[in-house]
Amino acid sequence: MLEPKVNVKQGRLFLDKYFSGESIDYRQIISLFLPILVDQAFVVGLNVVNTAMISSSGVAAISAVNMIDSLNIFLISVFIAVSTGGTVVVAQYKGSGNDLMVSKAAAGAVSSVSLMAFAIGLFGIVFHGPLLHLLFGAASPEVMSNARTYLIGSSLSYLGIAVMEAVCGALRGIGRTRVSLVLSLIMNFSYVLLNFVFINGLHMGVFGMTIAINTSRYLAAVCSLIYLFRLDSSLRVKIRDLLVLNWTMLRRIMFIGLPFAAEQMFFNGGKILTQIFIVSLGTYAIATNAITSSLAGVMQIPANALSLTLITVVGQCMGSRNIRDARKFVKSFLWLSSASFVLMALLIFPFFHPLVSLFHPPQEIVRDIFIVFLINSIAQIPLWSISFITPSALRAAGDSKFTSIVSMLSMWLFRVVLGYILGIVLHMGIIGVWLAMNCEWGIRGFIFLRRFLGDKWVQHKVI
Fold this sequence. Notes:
By secondary structure, the protein is mostly helical. Helix content is 86%, strand content 0%.
């Protein structure tokens, strides 16, 4: 009877040792992490379901959606990056105990992100033709037709997801992750439900998917604003606060957000160029990449949740200038993230074939999917965490320029160039492209680890 009590006590001692400090304790970290974990699980899981649903419309449909999603990620990442800047500023003001500036930072984040998303969405609609022909001109006419529909529909939805992301980012900054979880679930569940109606029920294919994505994102945006203005008791944002730009606050948010946005543009631009390599390899290669990317996203669910949680944790530590706690938590999160990949591999590989069958792939590409997924799963254990967890911590401390420059250079010098050499020149195909990505993780992660072990990253002041 004593053994369970001993185990519980040992567990608490472990959590106290590695996940508690003067700034925040393990109970607060768990309360931050769990809603983000659930959110990530639903986002990725529902994305897998959506990919599986659209795959029922044929290889051309899934290829078009995968191609445009790489462009969507490129464009959306710009205002998501600015939203992350808002999260950092809100978290640091929260750590310093300045509630008035927390409110101003939240309002500034929502205003700036919304304006940026509106401009980017307009750009995507006006220039959809040149963008498609420049990036994916080698695709078949059927794939290109589906891609055009999906790009215009996605661009229309950017403002909706931007408002929700900005509000959720501010809420994460003060530790209100449960509310951000609810808002995310509203968007993603409605998206899947509408996709089921339009794709499986009414057989509207990619056009039905664009109706679903717009409806779900603007529904989430409306719910976010209702919560912010009517139900929230912490941020205290008023409608008039969003209509007046606070330039001082905007500069602080952009100090973090713009370098990260530039990083994301170059980083995802490299992904698009890699996607162009894959398009030149044929429709089957595009489908292999899409399905493997979906499975890799499932593997990364806990690690991504840890990365998002660490922004708030380190942000609040740096707001109270507790550098010792910040260093301790980063080390603990790195080990925990790597362990999560081992756990996810043990859970996923026994069900590999049933999972892949959800996407209705041609039998010829199943072996390639397995090889790419196996290589990537092994590489993620030591390399993903140092490449993605570490820069989240550096960014939360204000060291955003360094992380951005390193990410941009590593992407273009290694992933893009090496991907072309391995995939196209050496005829390794899709396997070569993914191997190049894994190598780039290792190089970038090594540089970030060296930065973390030094002192320059803790010398920045955001507030």
